[in-house]
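User: For a teaching handout, I'd like to show students what a predicted protein-ligand complex looks like in token form. I'll give you the sequence and the SMILES for zinc ion. Please answer with just the structure.
Assistant: Understood, here is the input followed by the structure.
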Amino acid sequence: MNLKMECMCLQCGISHYIPLEDLSTEVTSGFEYPIVVNIFCNRCGGMLFVVGKEGDQPRYLVS
Ligand SMILES: [Zn+2]
């Protein structure tokens, strides 16, 4: 299974592509996206949240 999820850092905003099976997520009330609870940003150590599947058109991109 090669499905990867795009996870964005809450602090620095960079995206990480993490295999779905490595992710453990938690839904927080008041936040639209699932929060990743077992993996943190490798640049700043910030929390990540799941934006969507890799290859999906991200909603923050304007074409
Ligand atoms: Zn970060």
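For the handout, you might add this sentence: The pocket of zinc ion is lined by residues 9, 11-12, 14, 41, 43-44, 46 (CB under 6 Å).
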